[in-house]
Structure formats: structure tokens, C-alpha cells
Amino acid sequence: MFEFFNQPEVIKTIVTLGSMLLFFVGLFGLLTRKHIIKIFISIAIMETSIFLLFIGLTFKTDFIAPILDKIHLDVSTMNDPIPHAMILTAIVIGMAVLALGVSFAIEYFKLTGKTDIDEMSEMRH
Amino acid sequence: MSSILFIALPLLFGFATPILSKFGKNGVAYTSMIMQLFLLALAVSLLTTTSSYVEIISIAPPLGISFVLNSASLFFVLLFTLLMTLFSLYYLIHRKTDAYKDETKFFILLNMLLAAAIGLVLSSDIFNIYVFFEIAGISAYILSAYKKTSSALEAGLKYLLTGAVASVFLVFAIALIYINIGSLNLAVIAHSFEALPYNIKLLISILLLIGFGFKVEIFPLNFWVTDVYQGSSSLVNALFSGIVVKAYLFVFFHILYLFLPNGDFTVFLVYLGAISMLVAEIVGLRQTNLKRLFAYSSLGQVALIFTAFAMQNKDAIQAALFIVFSHSVAKFIIFLVLSAIEKEHKSIHIDTLKALNSSFLRAIMLIAMLSLLGIPLFAGFIGKFLALKSFAVEGLFVVLAIIIIGSLIEAVYYFKLAGFMFAKGEKREPLKIALAQKTLFGLLAFSLILIGIAPITISGFLLDASSVMLDGKSYVSMLVGG
After folding, report:
1. Partner residue opposite B151 with nearest CB, options A50, A54, A122
2. Coil vs helix vs strand at B374
3. Do residues B104 and B32 lie in contact, with contact meaning Cβ atoms separated by under 8 Å?
């Protein structure tokens, strides 16, 4: 019964719907949450959904991993490595930005005791 | 291979700092200075090339690195290296009395910002553009929060939040592009973008507009800009409005001209820009904090540049490049003067201008403001005049009217500021600034007047740059052939 799910079209549909659902979960969180850490988590969810979508749509089920060694020499049966490399880079960058953001949030909390984005109003004075 | 140096040297400098800092505090500062002077000399020497395409570096697909240095990108590279060198010179004197904590990091960030801004301009690979987009972003966030006061941290947080959201949309667009076209090279994408189904094209365009819209400070997405300018120190604000936003503007329109050479969204973007300008100037009218006020003025000017670029014709782009130059230089002067005022008066309220006791600084500020305003005989006039002319030629009289109304509102608050500066009343102790800093301000102000009186000095180069920027076909054929 699981063969149905092995068809490329079905997999792509599931990946697209699932990752878009995840994207809108993140977007919803970004727009409705007020706690700064929760906002960061929402952004992380949105990013991850894009990564899933990208990998899911470029990955081919009956192709092997793009690693050249003595046995696997035929490049035509391998998956495209560029999306993997790109997503790895994007994950690292996203991680770095989030870490930086959380460190700003911690420093800010130490100084003012605020975590709510609506209460951040140093500029109003 | 010389154009790779613009990116490689500043990044290499970052890795070399542990060794350089062994030579004491000045080791890092002076090495950075010398390197930037070298890059400036290199950029100037590239001006002698007569062809529009100065240099193309293409490394085969597995690495997929390609950089294109043509007249348009050379203009921006020159502007960025020049401003960064002048900034370092200014800071070298500034640091004697008011140095940043942990200066080594500060210099690393400055050079990272320079490398990323130049990388954005030169790169012709959309994923590399994403990487430079993030490097420029990260260094700008840290520079913004550098002083670690509560308002600086708040500015950094807001900057980072919007930047992170922008990058999500940009990655989404890049993923869709790769899934549909199978390449990351701008030239290859430009070649097959037209043939994509309409819905995909629309989706990618919207995602790119949202992603870059945050960074090019366009109307519904620019709510964060004024908070960031107000929270950050005036010194780094000079970099934000002089370098960072200009790099994003160039790369956004570079991509737009390549992907949509027929100008499918021209009218929409032109109106978007015009409305952004009007909104920024109206809100700017009531501000009493100088940094915030000039942030609104930056928003207005950037929106004007956006409108001119969005026209997608040669004359309008030339006008936009003129405004890019005059605005960068003028805002650079203004924010550096503000940092001197802030250091002396410990306040940045509009009333501090009344007590400002330095006729030199007042004169310099006045020149920069008159140029921003577009008074004849100053550089800002040429750009604004050419932009208005190109709107009139295209018959966009509503846009013309909006821009003129926006400029009039801008005039109201600039003349208010000028009135404050020259008001009679109690003056403070005279504000002393070093001779070298005076020379630097003088040179910048002189360049504004020189180009205002004799625009012919750069207009030929800018016209060449604008036609190269618009000419997607030769860009594609230069990179992929055929």
C-alpha cells in the first residue's frame, strides 16, 4: 500500500503542501507572537520550510547520493548536489544570524528586563 | 583578476587580525587604512579602461564563481571604496578621543561590510548574491548594536529581525529559480526567465520584491529604518546610508533589468517609489531627533533613487546614479558632523543645532543640505533635475507632481534646520575639530559643488554606466556567449 507514496508526483505534492503549511505556521507565528525568542523560532520554522521544499523538489527517489568513489562512477544516476550544497550554506548562515539575534536579545534583556517586542521603545523618548 | 582583490583583501584582513593585533592597537588600524587606500588606487586605475566591460572572471560551474566588473559596477565599487577610505581616515582621528571598545572587531566589521557591498555589486551568481546579502547584513547588525546600550541593542535587534525575514523570502525566490531553471548564474537565468509560465514569474518577482524590499527601504517594508538609524551611532549611520542601502539598490535593479527587460512592473514600481518618498517626507516633517529626521530624509532620497531606477530607461538611470553619488556624499557629511555634535553636546535633539558654535561645521552642513534639497549649483540638483525631466518625457505627470510635493515638504524641514543653525542665542564653547577632519569635510563638500557646477566631469561615465546596466543582452552574451 505504500507504493502509492513512492510515486514522484505524490512525493512532490506532499513535500510542497507540507512545507507550505510549515511556512505559513512560521509566518503566523512571526505576525502574532510578541516574545522575541518566539519570533526567532518562527523565522527558523519559515527558513526550514524553504529548505525542505527545495530539497524535496530537487531530490529524485531512484537516484543515488552524489559521491564519486571507485564503484559509483556514473554521474547520470546521481542526485544534483548543488541544492544540497546551497542548503548547507543557507542553514549555516541562518544559524549564525539566529545565534547573533538571540545574543542581542539576551544582552537587551539583561539591560532592560524586556522580552516583548511591543515594549521595545527606547526610541520614543 | 584584479577585481577579486576587492572582495578577497578585506576578507583576508579579517583572518589576519590575530597576527596584526600583536603589533599593538595601531597595527590593525593602519593596516586597514593602507589596504583601503590600495583598493581605492586600484579602483581609480581601472577607470582608464576604455571598454564598458572591464573584467569578467568566470570559474567553471562546480565552483560557479563569476564576477563582472563593468562601468556600472565600477561606479559603485569606486563610491564604496572612496567612502570607506574616507570613513577610516575620519575614524583614525576620531579614535584618539572617542574610540570604540574592542577596536579590532570594529575594523574587521568595517572591512567585512566593504567586501560584502562590493561582492553584491560584482557577483553574477544569485546564490553568491545571497551570501553577500547576509554578510553585509550581519556586519551591519553588529555595527548597529556595537555600543551595547539598550537603544543600540534594540536597533540591532530590529535590524536583524527584518533582515532575517528578508533573507527567508530571498532564499525562497532562489529555490524557485533553481527548481524551474536549473542554474544559479544570473546570465543563464536571464536567458530563460522570459519563457517561464506567468504564475511562476509573478511569484518569483513578488518574493524578490519582498526580500529586497526590506533592504532597499521601500514603503510598507521600511518601518524599521528610522529606529535603526536612531539607535545606532551617527558614525555607522554614515555607512548605512552611504554604502549599505546603495549596494542593495544596485543589485535589486541589476537583477530586475536582467530578468524583466521589457519592464513588466515599471508603472507599479514607479508609483511605489513615489508614494514611499511622499510618506517619508510627510512623517519626517514632525521629527525632533536629528538622527531620526535624517533617517526620514534618507528614506525619501532612497525612494527617489528607487523611482528613477524603476523607470528602466537610460536617462532615468543616469539621473539615479547622479543622486546615488550626491546623496551618499551629502549624508556622509551630515552623519559625520552629527557624530561630532553628539560627542560634544551629548544630545542629538534639534535644539542642539542652535547652540552649535562652529561656523565651519554650519557651512558644511548647509552645503550638504542644499545639495540634498536639489538647489542649483549643487550636485543634488543635477540628479533631481534629470529625474524630473525623465518623468516628464515619459508623461508620468502624477509621479512628477508627487516628487515635487515631496521635495517641497523636504525643503520645509531643511530650511527649519538651517534656521535653527543660524539662530541667534546662547552659544556653547566653540566646537573644535581636527584639521585633517576639516580637510576631509572640505573635500567632500567641494566635490558636491564641483559636480553641481560641472556635471560634465562625470556625466559621460554615468551615461555609459547606465546604458551598460540596462543592456541585459550583452551582459548575457558576455557571460555565456551567443
Report:
1. A122
2. coil
3. no
Distance CA A32, CA B246 (A): 32
Closest CA to B390 of B480, B302, B310, B311: B311
Q: With 70 as the cut, is the pLDDT of residue B60 above it?
A: no
SS3 (DSSP) at A116:
strand
Task: Give residue B461's domain range.
Answer: 2-480
On chain A, the residues whose CB falls within 8 A of the CB of B145 are 104, 107
d(CA B318, CA B465): 8
Helix (H, G, I), strand (E, B) or coil at B255: helix
When CB atoms are compared, the residue of B153, B172, B226 closest to A50 is B172
Domains and CATH numbers, chain A: 3-60+78-118 (1.10.287.3510)
**Partner residue opposite B156 with nearest CB, options A90, A104, A111:** A104
| DSSP for residue A1 | -
Cα(B170)–Cα(B176) distance, integer angstroms: 10
Q: Which residue of B has its CA nearest to A59?
A: B179
* Cβ-contact B329, B370 below 8 angstroms: no
Q: What whole-number distance in Å separates Cα of residue B455 and Cα of residue B222? A: 32
Residue in the structure block whose three cell numbers are 528614506: B299
- Rounded Cα gap, residues A49 and A64, in angstroms: 24
Measured over the CA atoms of residue B169, residue B325, residue A123 and residue A99, the dihedral's sign is positive
Query: Can you tell me the distance from the alpha carbon of B80 to that of B77, in angstroms, rounded to the nearest whole number?
Result: 5
Cα→Cα distances B190→B108, B132, B255, Å: 35, 20, 9
**Residue B385: count of CB within 10 angstroms of its CB:** 15
- A-B C-beta contacts closer than 8 Å: 95
Per-residue pLDDT of B302-350, as tens digits, reads 999 999 999 888 899 999 999 999 999 999 999 998 888 888 878 888 8
- What is the domain count for chain B? 1
DSSP states of B414-444: HHHHHHHHT--S---SPPP--HHHHHHHHHH
> For B359-399, how does the pLDDT look when each residue is reduced to its tens digit (9 = 90+)?
888 889 899 999 988 888 888 899 999 999 999 998 888 99
Contacts A110 to B, Cβ<8 Å:
none
CA-nearest of B228, B218, B221, B219 to B253 is B218
Q: Nearest-CA neighbor of B381 among B331, B322, B423, B313?
A: B322
Report the complex ipTM: 0.93
Give the span between the Cα atoms of B445 and B332, in whole angstroms. 10
pTM of the model: 0.93
Q: Report whether B479 contacts B68 (CB < 8 A).
A: yes
| Cβ atoms of residues B371 and B452 within 8 Å | yes
B153 CA: distance to closest CA in chain A (Å): 6
- What lies within 8 Å, CB to CB, of B60 at 6+ separation is none
User: Does residue B71 contact residue B461 with C-beta atoms inside 8 Å?
Assistant: yes
Whose grid coordinates read 527558523?
A44
H/E element, B68? strand B66-70
